[in-house]
Amino acid sequence: MIALDEIEVRDEEPGLHRPPPRWDVLRAPVIGRLLRARRGRLLLQLPLLLIALLLIYDGFTGPPLASQNLATVSVWVHYRGLVIVALLLFGNLFCMGCPFTIPRTVALRLSGRGRRWPRALRNKWLAVAAFVAFLYLYEWLDLWAGPELTAAVIIGYFAGAFVLEALFAESPFCKYVCPLGTFNFVASTVSPSQITVRDREVCRACPGKECVNGSPRALGCGTELFPPTVRSNLDCVFCLDCARACPYDNVALALRPPGRELVEATWPRRWDVSFLVMVFAFTAVSNAFGMVPPFYDLQLWLAGALGTTNEPLLLAITFAALSLALPAAAGLAAAGLSRTLAGRAEPLRVSFSRYAPAFAPLAFAVWLAHYAFHFITGATTLVPVLQSFLLAHGIAWLGEPNWALGSLLPGDWILPLQTAVVLIGFAASLFVAQRIGQRDFESPPVAMRALLPWLILWLGLAAAALATFNLPMEMRGALLGG
Ligand code: SF4
Ligand code: SF4
């Protein structure tokens, strides 16, 4: 149990003085009742568990060709596209229905409350490392092309979640390790929904704080968030355990203006959190860059310069440079310059963190433009792959596979759409930055000077993303898509 004095409801916290939410999904007819039901989460998790088991089965026993296997097509074309659209339209629906956490209850029974996660790891550094390592492994092992490897990754997720949950309290797998969760946490900061409470006075008088401590009837918040003080979607897996545990039915899943948390002073000014969102932005571009011809030219040049053809090593150097060193160097340089131009004598950490929330919209837009490309061009591939899977198991309901299905949209629409998405993301980042400047600086000219280095950085990222999308992108995981 968390000490009650650690979870006091304090009025001075920013972003908390607002009236009860007008739009609460948990009060919606039918869907609200389903979500709050004791086994409500299972309604989402069980279908996803069945799909995960099916993918594991086809991954190990089905066709070895990626574009004909359910595991590779579903995970690398459909999952990613649907997840990011869900994040844009509603919120972190994948974590809400995540099948990897189903064994949580079993794991908790095995471990009791579990040990505390080591203090040194209670930050986002491990999440940054795991996120970049996952992108690296995807590239090095060509996960998109390997049905068996994809199935093994799914099993690895189940095993990782179970073991960490069994050993430690605080859902450390979701909060500190899981690369999918890390992606969803950062992306969901632009989403139009967030956990909050209906009446903070009820929370103030609440003796048990069951939403976080749990009750005999329901688990408390696994990631140890306290709903009346939740100001951000970072770390919230949308499991709604808090809503089920609250004896006063006081938790709300509120609709909000998309990205509201980015313009309020709600993010901690920490190196790890700020660096995470910068890595999220730089990897949005470098992940797409890894699928266009200049990336292979870069690898060839590096091989010549280092006199080695060791592919894992060359990729590791490229990934470390583009996904870690570059955001660190660019972020530190922009922070230092911003501080100097604004004439502020403040810790570099504060300058580094100030505009970190403004990275989120642009980064989200680049990921969206990239994953939407794969989804639009490859979505219909699922039909013949499913037909072929059923036929191979003696079921002919869906008929013979039609491998000639086309893209969801005409090919020449895609680049203009990607361009529009990136430009909207860039404009949203500027809007967030302008609001941050208004809040943090005494006059518009000082705010403008402080913003300038960051503006140049975002312009560079947006230009790099658009240049990458303009190049022919490698088709991956689907016959039609890339
Ligand atoms: S259990 Fe309910 S009333 Fe009590 S602090 Fe949590 S959300 Fe508020
Ligand atoms: S606040 Fe905690 S319990 Fe509530 S939805 Fe978020 S992660 Fe789940």
Features of the shown structure:
2 domains, 60% helix, 21 helices, mainly alpha, binds iron/sulfur cluster, 482 residues, two-stranded antiparallel ribbon, single chain
Short description:
The protein has 482 residues and is an all-alpha fold. It is built from 21 helices and two strands.
Write the layout of secondary structure elements.
Blueprint: H1 31-36, H2 40-61, H3 70-89, H4 93-96, H5 104-111, H6 125-140, H7 147-167, H8 172-177, H9 179-187, E1 193-197, H10 200-205, H11 210-213, H12 241-245, E2 251-255, H13 260-263, H14 271-289, H15 293-306, H16 311-342, H17 348-354, H18 359-378, H19 382-392, H20 411-440, H21 444-469
Antiparallel strand pairs: 1-2
Helix pairs in contact: 2-3, 2-7, 3-7, 3-18, 3-19, 5-7, 6-9, 6-14, 6-16, 14-16, 14-18, 14-21, 16-17, 16-21, 18-20, 18-21, 20-21
What is the strand content? Answer: under 5%
Tally the helices: what do you get? 21
**From the helix content, strand content and strand pairing, which structural class follows?**
mainly alpha
What is the distance, rounded to the nearest whole angstrom, between the alpha carbons of the first and last residues? 48 Å
What are the low-pLDDT stretches, counting only 5+ consecutive residues below 50?
none
In spatial order, strands of the major sheet run 1-2
The tally of structural domains comes to 2
Bound heterogens, unique: iron/sulfur cluster
Major pleated sheet: 2 strands, antiparallel
Radius of gyration: 23 Å
The beta-strand count equals 2
Mean pLDDT: 90
Instruction: Based on Cα principal axes, name the global outline.
Output: globular
Helix content: 55-70%
Order of helices and strands: HHHHHHHHHEHHHEHHHHHHHHH
